TrEMBL record:
Xref: Pfam families: Gly_transf_sug
Taxonomic source organism: Cyberlindnera fabianii
Gene Ontology CC: mannan polymerase complex
Region annotated Disordered, chain positions: 395-425
Biased composition (Basic residues): 409-425
Protein name: Initiation-specific alpha-1,6-mannosyltransferase
Topology relative to the membrane: Single-pass type II membrane protein
One of the record's GO molecular function terms: alpha-1,6-mannosyltransferase activity
Length: 425
């Protein structure tokens, strides 16, 4: 009771005394500002600590032989380059910062991203179970899930010497565009496996064919591992997919500094900066927003750049190692890739891994089993490594579904493809 009287007395005094009111309000303002500062500073410190821990745990040693002497991404001989020219191009900056070594192994790192950390109460229980599979199946790998609150800081740390890339990342107007770009950026800088948060690890990465010492009785030099997402052998394929044969980018495995990823990053950067210059960053290009995303940062441009890299390698060295066990069919019969170039004809209807120099292409079952068509086998198949659950994790809540729309529609109206007779050589 005495304390209550004292408070009331103080309050009355403050009301009568203008100076006291001013002092009290000033004190409250300072208290609020300090509280906000401490909160923001605490979050920033937490993010910085997380980023520093990720950078420390995933740093890949680079040998002198990995330093590029030339920006020609198809040049195989390497030498040390001590400094970068002041007028270095975007591509030169990228390859200087993250050099590529064909002889180093693929780092045992697993990367995923999501809006929240795994220990956040907002983190989906379904996604948590998916991520647990990655951790459980791959105890020999360092697992990192990068929340949105940290992704920007991590990119800033890794690419601070390549300001155009940072600018492009900041400009991207949609979360899915940033998520796409991030996967390429983190793999180019650190290597390992990137896989969407709505994927499930079916087999340990150490048992994937990309981990074999040899492939088809020859040394395994895979520096980039991609899987077929779609191989729609049907006339209306373009209603559902960006490409006739489309490589998936929900799961990618790579060595750091792989030239294809460097070129992909450069192209996305150039496209984004040009859109800023033209004032078209938020303008939809193509049939719809989904089509725009696929060809800006998604599987459309990813597929284009894989083919572009292969054709560049072939042009640089016509005798490059190419192993494709796919039987002759109506699409690849008589195909001469040195003359005709590398495109979907070379990969359609494939059922075994294809080696193209340092790129290993997995059949559709590798990263897309269980879709029920296009030759995809069950998730229990020996060659099924990752299953995409098609939760539409990048979409707004009201646009998500228990399955990808293009997969649903195309499966519903899918006609069994014609069987092509095996041709003798």
């Amino acid at each position: 009771m005495v304390q209550l009287k004292a408070v009331k007395s103080t309050f009355k005094t403050v009301q009568r005394n203008k100076r006291a009111r001013t002092i009290l309000l000033t004190g409250l303002t300072i208290f609020c500002l300090v509280s906000v500062y401490r909160s923001v500073y605490g979050i920033a410190n937490s993010n910085n600590s997380f980023v520093e821990r990720v950078l420390r745990n995933t740093k890949t040693p680079v040998t002198d032989a990995a330093q590029f002497a030339s920006i020609n991404i198809f040049k195989q001989d390497t030498g040390k380059q001590d400094r970068l020219a002041d007028d270095a191009t975007l591509r030169e900056q990228l390859h200087f910062q993250f050099p590529y070594s064909r002889t180093d192994p693929i780092p045992k790192l697993i990367w995923q991203t999501w809006k929240y950390p795994r220990d956040d109460e907002e983190f989906s229980s379904t996604f948590y179970k998916f991520t647990e599979k990655w951790v459980e199946k791959n105890p020999d790998h360092i697992y990192s899930l990068i929340p949105d609150s940290v992704a920007h800081d991590l990119v800033n740390h890794l690419y601070q010497t390549v300001p155009q890339v940072l600018r492009a990342y900041e400009l991207l107007p949609k979360p899915i565009l940033k998520a796409d770009f991030f996967r390429y950026l983190i793999l180019f800088a650190r290597g390992g496996i990137y896989s969407d948060v709505d994927t499930v690890s079916l087999k340990p990465a150490s048992t994937w064919v990309s981990s074999n010492t040899t492939l088809y009785d020859q040394p395994n030099e895979a520096g980039l591992v991609v899987g077929i997402e779609a191989d729609p052998d049907r006339p209306d394929w373009d209603k559902y997919y960006a490409k006739r044969v489309q490589f998936c980018q929900w799961t990618i495995q790579a060595k750091p500094g792989h030239p294809m990823l460097g070129e992909l990053i450069a192209r996305i950067t150039e496209i984004t900066l040009q859109k800023e210059k033209d004032g078209t960053l938020k303008r939809v290009v193509g049939k719809d927003a989904g089509d725009d995303i696929m060809n800006w940062t998604g599987p459309g441009i990813f597929t284009d750049e894989v083919f572009k890299y292969m054709n560049g390698v072939m042009k640089y060295d016509p005798n490059v190692k190419v192993i494709n066990p796919t039987p002759k069919n109506e699409y690849n019969k008589g195909l001469n890739i040195a003359r005709d170039g590398v495109d979907w004809h070379f990969f359609t209807l494939m059922e075994e891994p294809v080696v193209f120099d340092d790129v290993l292409v997995l059949p559709i079952t590798g990263f897309s089993p269980g879709v029920g068509h296009m030759g995809s086998k069950s998730p229990e198949h020996k060659d099924a490594y990752v299953r995409h659950m098609f939760e539409g994790s990048w979409k707004p809540e009201d646009e998500r579904m228990n399955g990808d729309e293009s997969m649903k529609k195309s499966k519903k109206s899918y006609r069994k493809p014609r069987k092509s007779p095996v041709q003798k050589d």
